[in-house]
Specification:
By secondary structure, the chain is of the alpha+beta class. Helices cover 56% and strands 17% of the residues. The relative contact order is 0.18. One of its GO terms (cellular component) is plasma membrane protein complex. It is a multi-pass membrane protein.
């Protein structure tokens, strides 16, 4: 064994070597080092290491991006639309102020916002397009941090004074307008005449421009003072519905009955899951499928460990026989080859974890660099809704990926290690 182990094994009085002793680590390390006649085996071990590293890193990166994508969309969709929508049944919401105040007082409710909503044609110097107009009171708009906290230009002063509107940054760019410019809104829900309803057209100054980072909202929503919206859409003293924002979106089932009781009138509640069930279900299915597909990369790399160790066992049959004749037990040989294979998997997994973490922490900078080098748009806001590439690593999920890679690496070593331990010393020496 002098040519591969470097020194004879230290055998105790019982004729065995301690479990995972320094000698076992030494021999396993020697087997993985590249020597002239073992170059091919070392190449396989190297590819196994690279495969596991890239597989683990890819899994961590993709799952983090999927988590970040879902989290960003979740925050922005619910930051605009709320967690509950309270719609009237039987009669219009003319009593929206006391109803909203009572709902606002429910334990677990953050705030309730009465609003008027309608479609309109908006025109500016450069273009005309459809838009979703929402009428809310200035105080309620200020409580919506997603809007009031992301004002790109201007402030809420003009909105509070009445007459001014707040529009999205992409909508402003397409219309060719900025703060203090004016836009014209046209709605078919206008004045009632003997000849029918005539469209209503009004001009509104732009008080502020918001940018929430979600192209669908930045390019289509206009906020208008509630009183102006009631007049513009012929709502008089009523509202379309009441948006309810809660502290914990996962507790909507527990809050449904208290909100209905607090309304003190017939209402129909629609929670965020009912309104977005298809969208978030599709994201969850895509996330699970991506995890299964990318796990195959790790599995292929693990199979390389099996093939590499199997070839190593055949190549080291004589060395194994010498170890056995010098007193090494089957367990010692088994542990040597488990250590050899598991070392590849463990080091590859840790390297993949480090690589994945670095990429996730700098994902947006990497995207911008690749876009600049290739002169292409890798993450179109119009297609993916978001203006930046998000990544959010979850500790439990990352731990699961690391544990899965280590378990697969360990399982891959069992068969070759068992074959090594089963080598008969006499047959091993005779074959030489």
């Amino acid at each position: 064994m002098a040519d591969s182990a470097g020194a004879p094994p230290a055998v105790d009085g019982s004729g065995s070597i301690g479990a995972f002793s320094a000698l076992e680590w030494l021999i396993a390390g020697r087997y993985l080092r590249s020597r002239r006649r073992d170059t091919f085996i070392s190449v396989i071990a190297g590819f196994s290491f690279l495969g596991i590293m890239l597989g683990v890193a890819t899994l961590i990166i993709v799952m983090a991006v999927m988590n970040g994508f879902r989290s960003e969309l979740f925050d922005k969709i619910l930051g605009i639309n709320g967690h509950f929508q309270v719609q009237p049944i039987g009669s219009d919401l003319t009593d929206y102020v006391p109803v909203a105040q009572r709902i606002d007082g429910v334990d677990g409710v953050e705030f309730a916002i009465p609003y008027v909503e309608g479609q309109a044609l908006v025109s500016g110097p450069s273009a005309a397009t459809g838009a979703l107009v929402r009428g809310v009171s200035p105080d309620d708009l200020e409580r919506m941090d997603l809007i009031s906290g992301n004002l790109f230009l201007g402030d809420l002063t003009g909105f509070r004074e009445g007459g001014g509107v707040i529009i999205g940054s992409r909508l402003a760019a397409s219309l060719g307008v900025t703060v203090e410019d004016s836009i014209r809104l046209l709605t078919p829900e206008g004045d009632v005449t003997p000849f029918g309803m005539t469209p209503r057209s009004e001009t509104f100054p732009i008080a502020a421009i918001f940018e929430v980072g979600m192209s669908e909202y930045d390019s289509s929503i206009i906020y208008m003072p509630l009183s102006e919206a009631q007049y513009f859409f012929n709502k008089d003293d009523t509202v379309t519905a009441i948006e309810v924002f809660v502290d914990d979106p996962d507790r909507v089932d527990a809050l449904r009955d208290p909100i209905q009781v607090a309304a003190e009138r017939q209402v129909y509640l629609i929670d965020w899951r009912q309104r977005n069930t298809t969208f978030f279900s599709a994201l969850e299915v895509e996330r699970n499928v991506m995890f299964l597909i990318l796990t195959l990369i790790v599995l292929v790399a693990v199979l390389n460990i099996i093939s590499g160790l199997t070839m190593l066992v055949k190549d080291k049959a004589r060395d194994i026989a010498i170890l056995r004749t010098m007193g090494a037990s089957r367990g010692t040989v088994l542990r040597i080859f488990i250590l050899a294979g598991l070392s590849i998997g463990a080091v590859g997994t840790l390297a993949g974890l480090a690589l994945g973490t670095v990429v996730c922490l700098n994902i947006e900078e990497i995207r911008q660099a690749i876009s600049w080098l290739t002169r292409t748009e890798l993450f179109s806001p119009e297609l993916y809704f978001l203006s930046r590439l998000p990544a959010e690593m979850e500790t439990g999920e990352t731990t699961a990926v690391v544990v899965m890679a280590l378990v697969l690496s360990f399982l891959a070593t069992l068969y070759p290690a068992w074959k090594a331990a089963a080598v008969d010393p006499v047959e091993g020496l005779r074959s030489e």
